[in-house]
Design brief:
single chain, alpha+beta, 3-stranded antiparallel β-sheet, 3 strands, rod-shaped
């Protein structure tokens, strides 16, 4: 049984199907960027922990006065660690959405003790025809202070 003129029906079907296809395609691209953001978070935590691990108590007692601001002593150094992470220069990463926290699990920055860095990154997900969301990413790295 036919209901009137069916010309152009395939065009309507194509329009509906292409909307779903485009939404899936951009969703895949956005989640690829999200995985890239998570890789950045993990790499930034590792780099910041390495930076902090060579700035222990021995770095504070050096005879060179040019290195007076060299050592890290605890939570007060979060701005230096955040600046380091923000300055890594990963393309496509919004450094304003990045924070880092330094902690000394063993209580001080003596050689042989641990240093722990937590990096947080907020990634905005924007998929067409979908509610804009933010994905919170977190990575932790811990190293032994060597200097």
């Amino acid at each position: 049984m036919k209901f009137g003129n069916e010309e152009g029906g395939s065009l309507v079907e194509f329009a509906i199907a292409s909307l779903l296809l485009i939404m899936m395609l951009f969703g895949i691209i956005e989640f690829s960027f999200a995985f890239y953001g998570y890789h950045f978070t993990a790499e930034a935590a590792k780099e910041a922990a390495r930076y902090a691990s060579v700035r222990g108590s021995n770095a504070c007692t050096t005879a060179n006065p040019n290195l007076a601001d060299y050592c890290l002593t605890g939570a007060g150094d979060n701005t230096r660690i955040t600046a380091l992470v923000a300055g890594l220069g990963y393309p496509g990463i919004n450094s304003a959405n990045t924070t880092a926290q330094l902690s000394l699990p063993d209580g001080d920055n003596a050689v042989g003790h641990n240093v722990k860095v937590d990096v947080y990154y907020t990634f905005p997900i924007a998929v067409p025809y979908w509610k804009a969301t933010r994905l919170q990413m977190h990575s932790t790295a811990q190293m032994v202070i060597s200097n």
